[in-house]
User: What shape does this take?
Amino acid sequence: MPGKQLLMTFPVTATSHTLDDYRCRDGYATLERVLRQQTCEDVTREVTAAGLLGHGGAAFPAGRKWSVVNLNDGQPHYLCANADEGEPGTFKDRWILENAPHRLLESMLIAAYALQVRHCFVYIRGEFDLPYRRLAAAIEEAYAAGYCGERILGTDFACDIVAYRGAGSYVCGEASGLLSSLEGKRGYPRNRPPRLTVQGLYRRPTVVNNVETLANVTGIVANGADWYRSFGTPKSPGTQLVSISGHIARPGVYEVEYGYPLTKFVYEDCGGLTGAAALKALIPGGISTKVLTGAECEGVTYDHQSLAAAGSSVGSGGMIAIAEGTCMVRLLQVMLRFYHHESCGQCTPCREGTGWMHRIIDRIVAGRGRPGDVESLLEISRRNDGTTICGMGDAAGYATVGILAKFRDEFDYWIEHGRSRLMGKLEVGIDA
Ligand SMILES: Cc1cc2nc3c(=O)[nH]c(=O)nc-3n(C[C@H](O)[C@H](O)[C@H](O)COP(=O)(O)O)c2cc1C
Ligand code: SF4
Assistant: This one.
């Protein structure tokens, strides 16, 4: 684990997901202190001062989102933990659910207190089996111990937490699609405004936060905003759980302090590329973030500002290392098939555009590419940008533009010769 971290991660043992173990680490002591000594406003003020950024992809400040909820409107408010984690390459929320479910629950209860929420939901990806079982068991333990339900810890605060299993759709990770699904409808994302903090679940004010964002709340409230800000950089405080996969010697989940050198992380902490290959490219935060070439990673630090300056972003923390020899045409083919398959179909540019892009890339790979195909891919991406209800249309375009901008020669070669430039050389298989 790089950096001085340990905001989020704690030694994982065979029992670290249990209540007994969590209590040995002062578990639920912060909730108790908050309920007895702090106001709702105190909690939101601390989270805002800490500068906690959303860890689900958009890096929106959590305190700012919470502050929009009107505590005096007399309406029910809802809190949803987004545990859908559908972004390819991302598996860090799963780590929290499997190893530290009580950290999430305690944080949710503190957040629920701050937002005056009576009913919380954890929307968990349907394919997650062990994470769901661990979470469900933790919720049961929390009820039995008096941390959930009526009169929590003998106070007037009451709160229920329900784990809801999704049915396997990428767009149900988008906050408004998630709420549609939670309401029992088709998981269609919704047009905004109104913001979800004004009209969310059942048209009531709702906060949707990523699992990791919420899991940070207990530490912030227990230790204070200054403590949290002692990690990371002034504009990117704290740490990020990074799940790294692809052609990497030591794949897994690492807690990385913002500001940490990117290549040091890849080469030293993660052991470099498999087979000591050179780093051809790196996708820093799930496939919806723009790819960086190996050379572009030099000198970049792992934080929102440095990655933005390099032309990409932290995204969902799902890093994918790509070794020299990998065919980027086939990589884009896999991505476009995914976006086409996952488009919910509500918006024409996304529904049709992802289909067109998928068909074009399939045609190129089949050796039937035509001059102008690359321009068509770029033009369709451009037309998706900002014209769709949710960010998925944009994301398909970002992935495409990012790869084409940097590896166009591989596409041109395949179109001209009907095959990969890397064939017969070192083409590393991508599961297509
Ligand atoms: C297509 C799509 C899929 C998304 N999937 C997830 C997801 O699986 N988990 C997640 O936390 N956020 C996901 N998001 C982002 C959410 O819409 C939302 O911004 C996030 O849950 C808010 O939490 P945060 O502010 O704590 O990051 C997705 C967004 C889009 C456009
Ligand atoms: S952008 Fe795509 S996934 Fe999002 S609402 Fe529109 S059609 Fe559905």
